[in-house]
Amino acid sequence: MINPQTGEGTNKKVSAMNYYSYRLMIRQNTENHILKCRQLFHQYIVDMYAKIETERLLYIRLNQTELRSEQYIHLRDAIVNDGNVNPNELGKMAILPSTFTGSPRPMHEYAQDAMTYFHAYGRPDLFVTFTCNPTWNEIKELLLVGQSSSDRHDITARVFKQKLKCLMDFIIKHHVFGETRCWMYSIEWQKRGLPHAHILVWLINKITPDHIDQIISAEIPDKHIDPNLFDVVTKNMIHGPCCAFNNNSSCMSDGKCTKRYPRKLVSDTITGNDGYPLYRRRSVEDGGKSVVLKVRNIDIEVDNRWIVPYSPLLSKTFKAHINVEYCNSVKSIKYICKYVNKGSDMAVFGVGNVAAPLDEINQYQLGRYISSNEAVWRILSFPIHERHPTVIERHRTVHLENGQRVYFTADNVRARALVPPATTLTAFYSLCQDDLFC
């Protein structure tokens, strides 16, 4: 490695992630031609992150090739009842560990964390989706001459991270919705590359149905009373329009909108027992507003049926698509907790031997989809999930008697079969049996 200040060589080495992070930075009085290459730049960062991830997966594969796993009772029966059993035919190859960021296992654990919050504090109060706005001034000011935001996903990623931090400070530190008890969020990326955050918020003082309209709106604001909010809502918070206006919209399936738009017009907010409430969406005759939009070169009138629920305060502050939903029923909690932590998009299809050993590393790689914005985010080591407070008990393994999973190699399989391994659950029972506090 060369010291950039002295030009002298050193024996210090850096990781591939640190090197490519260095290459993506903007420096005064230094030309970075990589940042001027548009789609070639995108291909470069995707390839480099794919290389980084492949190296990590290779390390995991090479350091656990001999490790297998099986339920203890099955391993014990196989060894004790059949002395001639081949250890190499027992169990399956060890799976992709939860220490690998972005793999299915940690996302499942995060979903369990959310369910732990639910069991401890009840249903979350708010479900917020915050999407990057490529027209933010902070992004435009950093673009080179002739560039658009779609050419510089490194800028959109860094600006969105700062905006997300400000949004979380608004909610957590400034208590715009009230004092928070706990929260969590995960970052995802749209197919077109823009990042968005799914946020769950639990409040100390629960939101009551009477206060929903004070926090959330699903109506077009009055242009004359609040022109700034009107501009933000009409640019960012209108769904589609789809259905009869555009049957080719990405949200359409079997002739219907998968997001259930247009919504029903109601004069007052109605809370039910399943999912989200019906927010107030007044008709034009009842005092609601409408706006004329140009869709496919045709002027159409859009009313409150097409408005995505939002917080007026957050929309005016961040000038972006920020969908705010009130969590009304416990029936939808499990879906929301899993949705927030569902992880990256994956798509894989194949035909093979169903009896073949499970290879989660290969499955993960075959189904991996990486956008250039995600590649930048991961190269810069930005977090994809954060939560507070930390869940300590999430790793308590729940299993039947002698049903815990045991890891073994061909060399220690018989020793592992004779003594059942301790788990967090069995250790907890032992503590309850021996400790004086019981």
TrEMBL record:
Biological source species: Trichonephila clavipes (Golden silk orbweaver)
One protein family per Pfam: Helitron_like_N
InterPro entries to which the protein is assigned, alphabetical: Helitron_helicase-like
Highest taxon listed in the record's lineage: Eukaryota
Protein name per UniProt: Helitron_like_N domain-containing protein
Domain Helitron helicase-like, first and last residues per copy: 19-201
